[in-house]
Design a protein that fits this description.
Layout (H helix, E strand, L loop, with lengths): L5 E7 L5 E7 L3 H7 L1 E3 L23 E13 L8 E10 L9 H16 L2 E12 L12 H5 L4 H11 L4 E6 L5 E6 L2 E2 L1 H20 L4 E2 L13 E8 L18 H12 L1 H8 L21 E3 L6 E3 L10 H4 L2 E3 L8 H17 L7 E2 L8 H7 L8 H10 L1 H4 L4 H18 L4 H11 L1
Length: about 425
């Protein structure tokens, strides 16, 4: 059968969906220079089909400019079409940056962090997902047999990731039924968010070729362990030397690292509108679900909003190179560029103001008195998408991080999503998100 390889120029939109436009492989060099046409209102597509109220309507034109440093080409060697796409910046037709490009938003945050402090962000997105092709079994959490029960999925998936230029750090059966987790090596700046998009798309591509599907939805069914995305963060100086670690500081968190985390916690409630931006996200963000429910910093605490992760010093390993904090109030309905971008922006605010390291909690914040929580600056996270959007709107500093048009488009989009879900019971909401993600 005659075939011609198709290449896709793609970007990740407000809904966290990877969309784009294709062209023949023979045109790749030309498209790297000229890009492909795009439309502003496309960013207003919800994950469920309807278009949110658009500031542009049917007007305007843009360009998807493929980034050759973010090219993925994976041949599954099964006769199926090659997965070939390039993640792209969205630009105006004169080549200038478009204010609403999520990748541009992250690039700007990375550059401001570097120019003001000399620091670089090192990050990794840890994903959980549900694989429909696995054979379910009681008591399957972390079980070797759970890996057997999803057949060759892991082997094909890890091979696809490697072919896409991503090194898997760990892979396991998670706590929930048919739930799995993949972690990958950290990357600097924008590449970390690029990798998050690729990790999700390679999982979907692998499942499709095995006659099944995956879902990264934060709640596949109500009251079952949901799928989170934990964003691991560290800081490097201009020479690539880690600066978030200090062996003499409590639990190893340096003064610089502490100020960065303090900024994240100070803006934590508003951040949720970007990091946990779906109606069902808030079925996860409740106490005692091993996710996050309060704006606290914890040491090896898997219910803290920000967790200080352990380091392994066996064999003389350098703890500074491993040291990182983990932001846990996130999931894969978030656009990874916007999510990482706002974390950097919040951390940069903490560095600018030289905020002190937050007190590290050693107890469940729910067991603290109101006065104890006030002293620690610990507040309850939003309990709905609407509440998260209200918290963002009330955070003037956070709103100022966004180009005006991007913030307007984002809020319109999320309000439309909330309206689509309004009146649906929790099971139906979960079913819609499971299909969309």
């Amino acid at each position: 059968m005659i075939r011609e390889e198709l290449v896709m120029a793609c970007y990740c939109d407000i809904a966290g969906q990877t969309r784009g436009k294709g062209f023949p492989l023979s045109e790749l060099d030309a498209r790297l220079a000229s890009g492909v046409g795009w439309t502003p209102t496309n960013i207003m597509l919800t994950a469920f089909g309807p278009i949110a109220s658009s500031p542009w309507g049917p007007f305007g034109d843009l360009i998807l400019r493929p980034d050759p440093e973010a090219e993925v080409r994976v041949d599954f060697q099964d006769g199926s079409a090659v997965e070939h796409f390039l993640l792209s910046d969205v630009r105006n037709t004169d080549g200038s940056p478009w204010d609403c490009c999520p990748r541009r938003f992250l690039k700007s945050a990375v550059e401001d962090l570097r120019s003001e402090t000399g620091l670089q962000i090192l990050a990794a997105f840890e994903h959980e997902f549900y694989y429909f092709g696995a054979q379910e079994r009681i008591g399957s959490a972390y079980n070797l047999d759970s890996i057997r029960r999803h057949g060759v999925f892991a082997e094909v998936y890890l091979a696809a990731l490697r072919a896409a230029g991503i090194t898997c750090d760990s892979y396991l059966a998670e706590f929930g039924p048919r739930q799995y987790e993949v972690t990958c090596e950290p990357a600097r700046g924008v590449q970390a968010a690029d990798h998050a998009v690729i990790v999700r798309e390679m999982a979907r591509a692998t499942a499709q070729r095995l006659g099944s599907q995956v879902s990264f939805a934060p709640a596949v069914t109500p009251d079952v362990v949901g799928n989170g995305v934990h964003i691991h963060l560290s800081l490097l100086d201009s020479k690539g030397v880690p600066v978030a670690y200090d062996a003499t500081a409590p639990h190893g968190l340096s003064r610089i690292g502490g100020s960065f985390v303090a900024g994240i916690l100070r803006h934590g409630r508003g951040l949720c509108a970007l990091t946990a931006p779906s109606v069902v996200s808030y079925q996860r963000l409740v106490p005692h679900r091993w996710s996050a429910a309060w704006t606290n910093l914890g040491y090896r605490d898997r219910e803290a909003m920000v967790r200080i992760c352990p380091v392994n010093e066996t064999g003389g390993r350098d703890p500074a190179r491993q040291f990182n904090v983990e932001f846990r109030a996130a999931d894969a309905t978030a656009n990874p560029y916007l999510a990482l971008g706002v974390l950097i922006r919040a951390g940069l605010e903490g560095l600018r103001q030289e905020l002190p390291t937050p007190e590290i909690t050693s107890r469940d914040p729910e067991t603290l008195t109101t006065s104890e929580r006030e002293r620690l600056g610990v507040t309850r996270l939003p309990q709905s998408l609407g509440e998260a959007l209200e918290a963002l709107a009330a955070d003037e500093a956070a709103c100022a991080w966004f180009p005006e048009q991007l913030l307007d488009a984002y809020v319109r989009h999320k309000e439309a999503e909330s309206e689509i879900m309004r009146g649906l019971d929790r099971d139906t909401q979960c079913a819609h998100y499971t299909e969309a993600y």
